């Protein structure tokens, strides 16, 4: 049987290109980067590549921003939630080991990733932050609130469930399962008891 890996989160970062104008201050444009223990060179390279890609694609379509980059091993999702602020999430594609002509090779399963699902996850992260913390520009303008974004993302990113993302993430809804009458009455009775005791 061929071994198959799952989708995984490679990195997640927030940057603002206007925070740095000089080449020796490139690190200032990185507002948040996950994983935090990544080398500074890797962080700067990834952010620089995304910034260049966004600028390049705006040449062809100034009104519509780059949203997804497909590579052989990854998918990179871009979101500009506010002017000059970019959120980027990179997902590693699932792989499967296969044999052809008695040789083992790894196939990247790009069809297992639905762009709109992961784009919705990225948008959901921003909407959740906005609901609890406010806009990025407001939070980062106030020195006393700068840690709010880091604290939120440090809490949120481990809970992203990129391995189990599905169509429900697009609608940001809850899946309801049908119950027969007897099971429904038992659940309703249990909920009423809880409300009566603790409510």
Automatic annotation (TrEMBL):
Protein name: CCZ1/INTU/HSP4 first Longin domain-containing protein
PANTHER family assigned to the protein according to its UniProt record, in alphabetical order: VACUOLAR FUSION PROTEIN CCZ1 HOMOLOG-RELATED
Any single biological process term in GO: vesicle-mediated transport
Gene Ontology CC terms: Mon1-Ccz1 complex
Protein family according to the UniProt entry: Belongs to the CCZ1 family.
Ranges for domain CCZ1/INTU/HSP4 first Longin: 10-133
Top-level taxon: Eukaryota
């Amino acid at each position: 049987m061929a071994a198959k890996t799952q989708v995984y989160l490679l990195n997640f970062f927030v940057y603002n290109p206007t925070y740095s104008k000089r080449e020796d201050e490139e690190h200032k444009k990185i507002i948040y980067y996950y994983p935090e223990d990544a080398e500074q060179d890797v962080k700067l390279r990834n952010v620089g590549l995304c910034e260049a890609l966004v600028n390049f694609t705006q040449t062809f379509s100034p009104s519509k921003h780059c949203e997804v980059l497909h590579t052989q091993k990854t998918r990179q999702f871009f979101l500009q939630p506010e002017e000059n602020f970019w959120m980027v999430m990179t997902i590693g594609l699932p792989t499967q080991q296969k044999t052809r002509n008695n040789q083992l090779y790894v196939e990247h399963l790009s069809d297992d990733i639905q762009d709109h699902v992961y784009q919705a996850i990225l948008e959901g992260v921003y909407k959740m932050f906005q609901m609890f913390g406010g806009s990025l520009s407001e939070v980062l303008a106030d020195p006393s609130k700068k840690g709010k974004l880091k604290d939120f993302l440090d809490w949120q990113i481990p809970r992203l469930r990129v391995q189990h993302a599905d169509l429900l993430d697009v609608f940001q809804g809850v899946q309801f399962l049908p119950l027969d009458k007897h099971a429904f009455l038992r659940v309703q009775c249990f909920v009423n008891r809880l409300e009566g005791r603790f409510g």
